[in-house]
């Protein structure tokens, strides 16, 4: 018997966690001598009241959708993929190689090619930790953390020694050819006399991310593979008994997870910077953890949580621009969300369960 | 490479290994008691900031050290609350603590000092001075040993000596005291400890708190001895290198010393030489940076020796009813 109705588990608990995180963040803002209400108004105005603000919000949300889905898919197999950051870095390398060495005639083909490159590189970077977890029992959290650092070193080496154009100083690749440039929201939605999304980096990759949410939903709840992933996540011995190979499913789940994390860099590398730079991921791989926890590992939840974090990110940038509150406020909010929705989940859950139990007893 | 350069590299190895060693021993206490801690980085960072901030405002490095330890202890308490009391996921709690520290330190630093997320530089009594051991000057003329004593053994801050003294102390506590036996047992089989009438929760909180104190010292060392003040993200992955060293050391104190010295040496070499040529083959500096992590993955993979973590590590203890 469930202790709580399903809606409470899906909606109420994340909502309470979010309110707790928001309340504490407001206290933090108060403590550093600013007004939380002013700060919130400024964030809303900067991120949601102008089309350019939305352009940034959705650009960040695109990143977080990919990394959030990556963490969510791994969560379903009860794997904690903390290596989204490294997988996204390597995904960026895949994008750069696909775009620099293949002459794409049209951006749509380049988008497909870059996505494949990003997914393959991201998946391969997740393969070794996956294999070590499945076959040798090395803890996936530790190996993926280590692989984040190794990825940073690899990327640094490749950019400085291989991809950097002759004579250039900064560690970045050459610009991608013009034919690969993706249409931005401004190109797509502006009319001659009404320019929307001016200067904002949101681009066609956003729709790719939404498609990825749908694809993950189909995968997890409508395919045999998804069933096997969830079965493994619920009970390894049960899955084994049903003839599911834990090794195979662990590796496949991590490959999908790595591919999704890698595809984030289509948005940043091909969509925004149009060349590979050193810090293109900007911690989005880690925000994926918060997004997946907040979204309860459901693609629709991830979609909503990604937009929320996109708003926080863009709003935070506005705050840093206009007030004395540094951008790191977002890191604090992110930490609080992870804390309440992930680690302190029981703190919210236990009293609620008691409440619902007593309500039910009274009815009976 | 002449003898003096060799000594200088070793000297900077010791300096760089010290925070790793302290954090590694911190993780050792926690993980031996069955509480995984990937929040070492965050605790060090928080301690680094608060030690620098309080040392600057009070002018006394000892008050700074105390503040650093308190800051680290608060985060440890949070980790304990999440992973012991509320039986949450210890890894997720560690991730949250890392981000909390990364964000809060800059936020508070900006609010207090308005220097873009750093503290003003420390000087005088607000820093840990290096200690000249007796006869260091007098013995300097003695060949081989003199410079060794002067350069390598003498002239570190008190925290360095304290860190090295922690190794035998940790060994003694873990393997020669009743508390240590119980601590190790609670990481292997908490149910047995509970049956024996010893509080699992109490032991685990004790371990997490010791971890907090050591992380606090490590962070204070970074900001008030190794460098003169706090800068944003100054731990730069040291907490994770310490975690790697802990696995490399197979959760044992003496091995922890050698693992952290090895990783400290890698850092010292990478700091001094941009790239190293070995028989016509150039080792890039990025490879040196990544080597601790690569070595850890190899050890974890079990191809070279096997690292077996405490058996009950990462699992919250639920008393049977």
UniProtKB/TrEMBL annotation, chain A:
Pfam families: BPD_transp_2 (PF02653)
Main subcellular location: membrane
Subcellular location: Cell membrane
GO MF terms, alphabetically ordered: transmembrane transporter activity
GO cellular component, one term: plasma membrane
The entry's keywords: Cell membrane, Membrane, Transmembrane, Transmembrane helix
TM region(s), chain numbering: 12-33, 53-75, 87-104, 110-128, 140-160, 195-220, 241-264, 302-323, 329-348
Bilayer disposition of the protein: Multi-pass membrane protein
PANTHER family: ABC TRANSPORTER, PERMEASE PROTEIN, GUANOSINE ABC TRANSPORTER PERMEASE PROTEIN NUPP
Protein name: ABC transporter permease
The species this protein was found in: Shimia litoralis
From TrEMBL, chain B:
GO CC field: plasma membrane
GO molecular function: transmembrane transporter activity
Keyword NAD: no
Transmembrane segments: 12-29, 62-84, 91-113, 158-175, 205-224, 254-270
Annotated compartments: Cell membrane
Record's bilayer topology term: Multi-pass membrane protein
Keyword Transmembrane in annotation: yes
Keywords: Cell membrane, Membrane, Transmembrane, Transmembrane helix
InterPro entries: ABC_transp_permease
Short name of any one Pfam family annotated for the protein: BPD_transp_2
PANTHER family named in the record: GUANOSINE ABC TRANSPORTER PERMEASE PROTEIN NUPQ, SUGAR ABC TRANSPORTER INTEGRAL MEMBRANE PROTEIN-RELATED
Name listed for the protein in its UniProt record: ABC transporter permease
Organism in which the protein naturally occurs: Shimia litoralis
